[in-house]
Amino acid sequence: MRTSRVSRETARLFDNASTSPSPRRSTRSLARFSYGAPSSPSVKNEPADIEDAVSLPRAKRIKREHADADATIKSETEDVKVEVKDEESPGTKAPRRQRKPVRTTTDRITGQVKVEPPSDWEAMYEAVRRMRAPGGAAYGAAVDTMGCERLADRSASPKDQRFQTLISLMLSSQTKDTTNAGAMARLRNELPPHKPGAAKGLNLDNILAVEPRLLNELIWAVGFHNNKTKYIKQAAEILRDKWNGDIPDTIEGLTSLPGVGPKMAYLCLSVAWNRTEGIGVDVHVHRITNMWGWQKTKNPEETRLSLQSWLPKDRWREINGLLVGLGQAVCLPVGSKCGDCELGLKGLCKAADRKKVAEGLKRLKLEDDENVKLENIKAEEAGIVKQDPQQNGLDDVKPSLENVKTESIENGEQAVTTSIKKEEKHETNGINGVSPVKKEEESVKRDVKVKIEED
Ligand code: SF4
What we know:
Elements: H1 2-19, H2 23-27, H3 41-45, H4 50-53, H5 58-92, E1 103-106, E2 113-116, H6 121-132, H7 142-146, H8 158-172, H9 177-190, H10 204-209, H11 212-218, H12 225-242, H13 251-255, H14 262-273, H15 283-292, H16 300-308, H17 318-329, H18 342-345, H19 354-387, H20 394-429, H21 436-454
Antiparallel strand pairs: 1-2
The chain binds iron/sulfur cluster (SF4).
Iron/sulfur cluster binds at residues 330-331, 336-338, 341, 343-344, 349, 351-352.
Pfam families: HHH, HhH-GPD
Catalytic activity: 2'-deoxyribonucleotide-(2'-deoxyribose 5'-phosphate)-2'-deoxyribonucleotide-DNA = a 3'-end 2'-deoxyribonucleotide-(2,3-dehydro-2,3-deoxyribose 5'-phosphate)-DNA + a 5'-end 5'-phospho-2'-deoxyribonucleoside-DNA + H(+)
Subcellular location: Nucleus; Mitochondrion
């Protein structure tokens, strides 16, 4: 009995469940996801993902709704964007700057090879020149006062100056200009004389005579000083034996010296012999021109050849100093100051840090606004001074000037009036009180009368 009652109650519960589902079940029904569930229009409009069918907590639901809305907007925006780009780009958007590196083209007909310089190179070059000029962001770089070409003793003989230039260039590789200048100062002041009574300082004889250990001590601050000591001693012997104690005046001769590469040779030839036959490309010139996209080269020697293929020859000497200074003062290898750099601010440098440039532009705008305000204040002050002549003691002067002007005008008018009156009087009275005009008329009448009588 008991078993049958339980069975009956269980059966009743099942019946209830199948015939009258609870409202809660109906709202959260998963029946439509069951296999073979009939499809109805209402089901069709429901989202197909099971996660969408189960109601989410409020926060999640809101987030989801926003995400859906965003997705819709995004897709619409993307569609619109394409259309806007096509329609508006010619007038409203600045055309994308074409940046091309140096390239070689061959004329199909003549077969002539032509080298096209990089895009915008002249604008960039002039911007660097401005930055390197007094008042510019890269003015006063270390190279301007301590560059290799400035470290020779100008009071020494030309031959010694050339030798000193060569030594400063040999010391400069992998070394900061300031450090190099310090080492050169020690050599010039402390290098002992090669014989009693001779002058101390940096010259070929003293280098030949100095102990390598002492020379190494004097230049210990520069990079690779051990190797440089060795190269300097060897080069000094070559100069003595092969070059009559002077430095070579050719690139081949200079590069034949130990520790002297093309960069040093071209710079040395320019500075010591005042002959520019190539560009001195150091790490700054190599790094910066590649960064600008002027060429894509692997080492300074490739960069030199690339630059020489298109850069006008009158720039070959100065470009080294310009770019070295830029690299030292603004375009630093780490922490470049793009916000101070004209190239970045004018959109000429493809490697510019956009954030720094934006900050720089903002700062410039603030400075401009400040200047405008100051000018307005000055103009206002000037206006106040103008309206208040007492401040300048003009209260006495102005009336007196006006008096002079009035008197002058009055005198002029009086003089004119008197003159007119005199002329009128003269015309009216003429000779014997008869007007000259009237007298002439009478004369004409008399002549006509005589003519008629004769006829
Ligand atoms: S990277 Fe920056 S600092 Fe260097 S040239 Fe470009 S804009 Fe100037």
